[in-house]
Fold this protein.
Amino acid sequence: MARYLYSLLVWLVQPLLRRKLLRRGRQEPGYLVAVEERFGRYTQPAWPDDGRTLWVHAVSLGETRAAAVLLGALREQWPAYRLLLTHGTATGRAEGAGLLREGDLQVWLPWDTSEAVSRFLDHFKPRLGILLETEVWPNLAAACAAARVPLVLANARLSEKSLRQALRVAWLSRPAYRSLAAVWAQTQDDATRLAAVGAPVRGVFGNLKFDATPDAAQVARGQAWRTALGRPVIMFASSREGEELELLQCLRQAGPAAREIQWLIVPRHPQRFDEVADLIARQGYSVARRSLWGSAPTLVEMSADIWLGDSLGEMALYYGLSDAALLGGSFAPLGGQNLIEAAACACPVFMGPHTFNFDEAASLAQEAGAATRCADMASAVAGALALVREPGRQQAMAREASRFAKAHRGAAARTREALAAYLG
């Protein structure tokens, strides 16, 4: 009865979903691509029922980057499988397009109605479904169990906030988590929380993102730009709404010390690039947008107060360019973004008080000397300014960041070994 009521609700709000996609599509055209796939309707021919389809779901950009690591391990072990990659956001789909090989396919994960999910499974006939990190939907989980398609949750995480939300609707969330074939958590705390909501936790494997190797060419390019610039660069990485204004106000208060630094802001969400550029200009700063550069910043761009990183797929370049990074999402109560890529690129991190989405990684980075936790934006700006004025200390912190990233690798191999129970 509980899932029936849920199914009725998600069916009734489908028209609202279409309107939402149209609104989002005005800012991000990717949301207007293949809209009918969201409802389980496909133009591609049905795939053969030969047991060689491996389905991986990576809802957004961060999960798709984790998927890239896992897919490398899976293809090495099971090269004969074709890949079905699904997403929920335009940034995830854009990133995932670069992971496909001949014979693979990329579609949207269908909206969680019983009919759409059934059409999805009937059309693609996956042998196994791998959800990454957090995406567990009641009808999807139930349909996979009924069709005897093992559905696993890899690189799994669940924050305290998400646990509280799940327990408030335990009548719906517990059956969904119990339907999973296996769950492999990032941390022991994640495992405990997942078990509390009924998930069959089978192991704690660490975070797949530690196994990612930054694009060495991008890192080197960024370092070359920094050398040519001749002054330190501090990046605000994956900034969120409201945080950019707070940074700009702190820079004004910091006075001449802040003007000796090249500041780089890289917003988390591409649809906000224009908004952030306008905000910077309204605050009286000159801005140079990466999307308008050629192969390197010109003298005009080098003279701008703020650089705006408004390109996709270049985070390694931005980290290579930076002497230090402020961690977006951690200065507002948003849970923080992942600092692992910064560490892998040997970029020291200054984070705010709100890192509940990545608590263990943040704590471990702090213990390793790769990151510094700050009470607020002003203290983070002051800390970063102090660090980049001491090259010896900055280089030592960069080395610790690199060591920290390397020390926590191995999740991909552990996940691959666990998947052998389902793929042979």
